Predict the structure.
Amino acid sequence: MTELSLQGAVRQPPPKAVPGSDLSAQRTRSAWIFLAPTLLVLAMVAGWPLIRTIYFSFTNATLNNLEDAEFIGFSNYLTWITLQSGRTVWRGLLVDPAWWGAVWNTLRFTLISVSIETVLGLVVALVLNANFRGRGIVRAAILIPWAIPTIVSAKMWAWMLNDQFGILNDIFLNLGLISQKIAWTANPDTAMVAVLIVDVWKTTPFMALLILAGLQMVPQDIYEAAKIDGVHPVKVFWRITLPLIRPALMVAVIFRMLDALRIFDLIYVLTPNNSQTKTMSVMARENLFEFDKFAYGAAASTMLFLIIASITVLYIVFGRVNLSGGDR
């Protein structure tokens, strides 16, 4: 065999796995073997509690009789009872005004917070993607709000938003933006605004990090060609950057949306017992442990799971998000 033929044999790429072939089947089996421990752990720490929660939602369980709970069907979700006056009324989670108020608060919080964080995260990611001195230090510093535990962030902002000692009121008074101190977390008109401010401050770096990862994958040759052709930077953003980072942007929105829909700790610390900010997670927790209505809280938790799953599936389908990679 000649030296040229040897070089050609060495440079040949490895054979690709053809769907349906033995190599493809072997790779599939290997993938399932490596994934099996992870799937087992997920089934134990997530799947089993979810199944138990769904089961308890169809019972009359309380904290004192979990093992002796009786099956009552859909009574926790929707049922009708006859009053002594002979009038029939509907009862259950699906006709509970408090529940639908929590649903509205959760959806409103999710829509506003994710929208603001996506826009701000995109701006921050574009800035961090530029070449300037100290870029590495700035990239590390921008992650500090996200790295701080949520409980710590909530308590820190609770002091900053305090109506008597908070620095935020002091700054706004000195700037002439307000005429008197505001109880940000206690006032029903400003409670949701306060929660949104804290959440945007904390989570925007997370969005920026995910979007920046997408920007790093865009070939620089495209920008150089656009610069040579004299294309305006605004048009480059809308015609080149945004379409190319769209998959990363959509996945970032999914992750942030899932986190926002199950928001609990920030609401629970900043605005406890406030109906204007009470979310589905907070209401489920109250019924599970504080009101000793375990089955009713389990029903609320199940509905929360179904709502999150439905919104996520609709977002993936209509947003044409390909989570497996490649083209959709």
